[in-house]
Amino acid sequence: MAGNSGVLYVVATPIGNLADISERARQTLADADLIACEDTRHSRALLAHLGIGLGSGADGETALWAYHEHNEAQITPRLLAHIEAGKRVALISDAGTPLISDPGFVLVRAARERGLCVVPIPGPSALLCALSAAGLPSDRFLFVGFPPRPSGQRRTWIEGFAAEPGTLICYESGKRAAVTLADLCAVLGGQRRGVVARELTKHFETFLSGELDTLAARVAADPEQQLGELVILIEGERRPASERQEVEELRILAILSDELPLRQAVALAARITGGNRNRLYKKALAQRQSEA
To answer: pLDDT tens digits, residue range 63-78?
Structure first.
């Protein structure tokens, strides 16, 4: 630990309802010499609600700096210099816990590498809020962030975690919710159960639950469900590992067979998946005969 009193506080803030701020978070922000945030306009409103005055950082005033993905390379060294000089720096995001699909990783990692003190101030998190009330298994889950915007990339992204047995969680904007749910159905199958949690902790908070195809149709047909911010949760893969392995083998074999001679495609699929070459070859022949 560096030999000074400088600290980087990673402070969780409300995701909607301002009453969710913890007393520890409130006090930490009030005591900070500098607060780094995504959007200064958004954070000024929060800090005003908390009764925290802002200034230039001189004479005991708290300074407010913009810190986001477009300037973190430039601002990170300056924040580190303040911490090394003994200042108390608080990192907040627009909503929820910093670093969870928000900026901050670069700063926290650099602070750790320099031996600086990093202190988490826990609190609201949209993904945990949604999971706690979704009614889907919570003993194991995988948070995958925001989906890519192009549909082709989004489907490839979904394929990457299709076999995950834990509950899947992603964030999405309301305006893209319908197309994302449609792609989830296409890749994972419409019969998987899911939950769409919208505008959590706010006045128009809603939870929709059901099979993915039903959810996709409902969101597509209801403009109100396409507003605000959403958390989408999907039950994990429940098929036995042996069945999942076979599905993955055949998926890869089908892709390779479109580009390579059959024997070469089978040999490469077996190497990639660890599957049995003879079994894969028999399945490939049976598939071709059924298509003939």
So the answer is: 999 999 999 999 999 9
